[in-house]
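Annex B. Sample input.
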Amino acid sequence: MDELSSLLRVNCGTGIFITEDIPDIICLMFADDVANCAESAVKLQQQINIIDMFCISTGKEINLDKLK
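Annex B, continued. Sample output.
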């Protein structure tokens, strides 16, 4: 999951600004769960596209049951 976080940071640029002391937040992770953060719908779609490419290239799948 660290690889996904790095991929999002490199390819998405900015996330949600909190303070100058920490980098913009692009996603929140806990174990195998990921919550994405974006300042617009366009940026969120960009993240979703990157996650899709990541899943295809690594053979991982999104558990859609967790979305309910």
